[in-house]
Specification:
seven-stranded mixed β-sheet; 56% strand; 0% helix
């Protein structure tokens, strides 16, 4: 059974940084691309970034390009989202996802 567990969320001031992590189990992690999504109240689900199975390619939403970095460690079955220069915005729940599955999410709040 695919299991994804996000962590690392919290409160940060505008301009700050956070690193999210996703622990995966129940499948061959190194063979699947992985993505981050986020959902803010009233705004729907937004794709944030994707990393290919071997980490060779990454893709980002325009809204986060240049500020977020997605990475993975296939030896540890872990994926990460390093977020820099966070902008003041409504709270959002960040999810990691693969094969149309996702975890419970980790909450990120950026405010002063």
């Amino acid at each position: 059974e695919v299991q994804l567990v996000e962590s690392g969320g919290g409160w940060v001031q505008p301009g700050g940084s956070l690193r999210l992590a996703c622990a995966a189990s129940g499948y061959t992690f190194s063979r699947r691309s992985m993505s981050w999504f986020r959902e803010a109240p009233g705004k729907g689900l937004e794709w944030v970034a994707t990393i290919y199975s071997d980490g060779s390619n990454t893709e980002y939403a325009n809204s986060v390009k240049g500020r977020f970095t997605i990475s993975r460690d296939n030896a540890k079955n872990m994926m990460y989202l390093q977020m820099y220069r966070l902008k003041s915005e409504n709270p959002a729940l960040y999810y990691c996802s693969t094969m149309r599955r996702s975890g419970q999410g980790t909450q990120v709040t950026v405010s002063s």
